[in-house]
Amino acid sequence: MRREIFRMDRASAVALLARAPVVHLGSTTHDSEPVLRVVHGVVVGDHVLFHGAPVGEKMDVIGRRAVVSAEEIVASIPSYFVDPERACPATTLYRSVQVHGTVERIEAPYLKAAMLTALMKKHQPEGGYVPIDAEHPLYKKAVAGVLVLGVSLERLDGKAKLGQNRTPAEVGRILDLLWARGAPGDVAAIDLVRAANPSAAVPSFLEAPADTTLVCAMGEADADEATALLVGTYWCEGTPPDRIRKSLLGSSAWVGARDRSGTLVGTARAIADGARRAWIYDVIVANAWRGRGLGRALMRLLLDHPAVRGAETVLLRTRDAMKLYEPFGFRTRHVHRTDGREVHEMILGRTAANGEAVCPLASAEKGT
């Protein structure tokens, strides 16, 4: 039985199972021998389905009780994130899902074809093949011959262990240290941990105007909203929406802000090499939120992002937002004139006398 504080809602658990690259199948044969296999599982309707050849060990589990599981590691938390001396607090944040049921053999050709279609969409989303149809001459024989097994999602249980057992102070410290460490996955982990612990204090790097929440790791789920914000801006003029979307997803760092209703109201991104150069792109705030300090909050977050903070030089271009960037230390180094308009190329140098990169955030005015 899951501890209630860790229980994942059903929709999130199904989504985790659906996106998992592989799932684990545990069962027994009719001789009570254990079976543990890694399979390519997909969610189709109310079942998790997987396939194989109609011979061998998978045949032995048909009609047997089974467990199908998947998991995602969110972040590794060293002991000193919580306690400077004891080793005991070391832990791993993760999300997992288990499905308990009976292994069924799927016979209906249309369900077999649906399973194979889902599998191809998952592992070959770019297409490049004739759509799978159980009656198509290319697939009819293959669909008839493939073994498809499934387990009902009726008994599905999801767990999200994201620090809910920690005190608000401990969660706040974990958030700060994940941001400071900046290892792969840490930035995305911050958003997940924060969402799971709404009573935790807002870390200083995530301070934002009232009724807004900063997002450290924007992604696929945010791309359409962010694209809609950027369509029609002067710097995206002539760029099709699908290209804007692709550029967002290709960023080294991409942050955003949502209002109380969850609507995306600001975004900013950067391309960075982690050491020498970073370019800032697509800084935008929805009209209703301009003049409230949200643009400044997004820039503070982006400049201190683990992918950007070590860059010796940060550059950007703007026609009209020089006053937003100047408090962070940006200065105009060149003015380009295009179509009768001035575009300022601005630069921020962040190398101290000792050669170490520094971040000027402490000198930037907050909340303006």
TrEMBL record:
InterPro entries: Acetyltransferase_Butenolide, Acyl_CoA_acyltransferase, GNAT_dom, Pyridox_Oxase-rel, Split_barrel_FMN-bd. CDD domains: NAT_SF. Transmembrane segments: none annotated. It comes from the Bacteria. GO terms for molecular function: acyltransferase activity, transferring groups other than amino-acyl groups. The keyword DNA damage does not apply. Its EC number is 2.3.1.-. Signal peptide: none annotated. Keywords: Acyltransferase, Transferase. Residues 213-353 form the N-acetyltransferase domain. Gene3D superfamilies: 3.40.630.30, Electron Transport, Fmn-binding Protein, Chain A (2.30.110.10). This is GNAT family N-acetyltransferase. It comes from Polyangium jinanense.
